[in-house]
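3.2 Worked example (two chains)
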Amino acid sequence: MTRRFPPALAACAAALLGTGCSHTPQPAAAAPTVTVTQTITPTLPAASTPAASHTSAIPTPAASSAPAPAPARAPRGSVALTEWHDGDATNTCVNVMTVYENRSDTAVISITQKFRTSYTPRHADGEYPDDVDGPLKTLTQDAGIAPYGTRTLYWQVCAPELASRQNPVPADGTDSFMSEIGAQPRATTWDWAP
C-alpha cells in the first residue's frame, strides 16, 4: 500500500523543520475533510551540525609548508699532498713542512696526516749505517683550505722512544745529522666543510 502525502507536507518534511508543520488540505468534492499534523524532529549525532555542505571540483591546497631541504651533495674531488720537506730536527722531534692542494669545490676544514719516522741506529765512530723505519705517527690539524686552494701546513712530529736507539749528538757536532730523526708523509685524510 502506498501512502501519498500532500505536497505541502512533503515540502515541510524535506526541509526538516524542528518546529513541525501542519497543513489542512482543501476539501475535495466527495472527500471528507482530513487534517494531518506531523511533527518531525531531526536527530543529529553530537558531533554533527546542521550546516550546509559545499563540494568543489577544485582541490583545496594543503597548508603551505617550507620546501623540504635538498639532500646534501657529496663533495667531489680530493686533496693532494704536492710537496713536503724535513726541517730542523733533534733525536726525538722533527719539523715537517707540507703543501696541500684542494682539488674540489668544497672547502677542507682539517687534515689528518700519517708520518713514517726514521732514525740512524746506534753505531761505532766512522760507520754510516742506513736509516731504519721508526713508528708511524698520526697528527691532525685545522687546515682551512678554500675550494681549489693551496695551503702550507707545518707539523712537529715527535717520537721520544727513538732517543735511546741513536748515538748521542757528538760534542763537536760532526755528523750530528745521524742523531736526528726524520719523518716522511704517508696517508693523508681530510674533513670537508659542512
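3.2.1 Second chain
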Amino acid sequence: MKDSSVPDPHPSDDFNDPDLAEPRHRQQAIGVGLSHKFDSVIN
C-alpha cells in the first residue's frame, strides 16, 4: 500500500516542465565535464 501523504520524489510531469529544462541540461553538462576530467586523471 502506498502512503499518499508522501509526495512522489520524481513526478513524471517534471520532465515536461520547461522551467526545469535549462537547469537539467546545465546539470547534465556539468556531469559530463566532470566525467571527462575524471577519465583524463585516471588514464
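3.3 Remarks
The mean pLDDT is 81.
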